[in-house]
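Researcher: Sequence recovery benchmark, item below. Answer with residues only.
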């Protein structure tokens, strides 16, 4: 049973959240979105699954959320949203369409810029394309409270430039030696940069919460000792047949199976990520995502 007092508390909390994010105020004074990059050392860790579901959860909490699929040429976020975009990153970076054209609203609330799938040209972006992406991200950030970047796995320059444009990085890994080794490689690369975002770890497909925490402790110790890079624990998501047995076309887990244990873990991650977003907004510097990304392009 939901009491009236609970509803009032929830409305009050959302009102406080809107005030912190500048919602409802003068648009000229409203800061741009907090940008969070979802990264992984290898493919298949569940990064896009987490990105799309957490985007829905943040939207349900009253935030204007956009997912930008930056897995250039291999994007699948639109499939997880059940969306059929008319335009994608291919049209944006090719100069055929503007941000307004490629932005679409999904059935579950968040906006989406689709990455394009099976397009080999997107896997070979040059500096001009990355500069166009930087300008586009600046425009997208001006229209939203939170921008989630679903970045390509690995250490390719295009991927690392995109990750380093964010204020927060959510590193997604599994409790397996190959996934942890590749996650450490990305963390080590981030540690060598002049400007580096905060890194928060999610352990996906953990058989139990204790293993999730133990996996973080192991990677955190290695990162601190050998890369001088602290990382923080965002949480773990359990191994669950409810996820592996789902098919394309079904609603995202957060909507379709609200009572399963993975959904409950996702809700916990949404709350933890929301807290970090508010902290990042309050600590935001003067440079926006476009300036941060252009600086990285010059360095690379």
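Model:
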């Amino acid at each position: 049973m939901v009491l009236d007092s609970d509803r009032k508390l929830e409305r009050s909390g959302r009102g406080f959240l809107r005030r912190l994010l500048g919602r409802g105020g003068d648009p000229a004074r409203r800061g741009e979105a907090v940008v969070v990059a979802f990264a992984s050392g290898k493919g298949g860790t569940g990064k896009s699954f987490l990105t799309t579901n957490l985007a829905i959860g943040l939207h349900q909490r009253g935030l204007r959320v956009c997912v930008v699929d930056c897995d250039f040429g291999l994007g699948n976020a639109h499939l997880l949203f059940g969306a059929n975009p008319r335009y994608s990153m291919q049209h944006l970076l090719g100069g055929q369409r503007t941000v307004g054209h490629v932005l679409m609203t999904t059935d579950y609330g968040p906006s989406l810029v689709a990455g394009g799938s099976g397009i080999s040209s997107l896997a070979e972006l040059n500096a001009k394309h990355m500069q166009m992406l930087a300008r586009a991200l600046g425009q997208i950030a001006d229209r939203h409270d939170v921008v989630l970047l679903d970045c390509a796995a690995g250490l390719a320059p295009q991927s690392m430039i995109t990750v380093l444009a964010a204020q927060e990085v959510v590193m997604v890994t599994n409790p397996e030696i190959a996934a942890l080794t590749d996650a450490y490689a990305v963390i080590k690369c981030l540690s060598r940069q002049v400007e580096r975002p905060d890194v928060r770890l999610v352990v996906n497909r953990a058989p139990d919460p204790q293993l999730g925490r133990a996996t973080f402790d192991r990677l955190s110790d290695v990162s601190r000792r050998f890369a001088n890079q602290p990382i923080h624990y965002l949480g773990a998501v359990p191994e669950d047949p409810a996820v592996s047995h789902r098919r394309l076309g079904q609603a995202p887990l957060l909507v379709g199976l609200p009572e399963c244990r993975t959904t409950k873990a996702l809700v916990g991650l949404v709350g933890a990520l929301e807290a970090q977003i508010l902290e990042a907004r309050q600590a935001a510097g003067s440079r926006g995502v476009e300036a941060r990304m252009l600086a990285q392009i010059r360095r690379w």
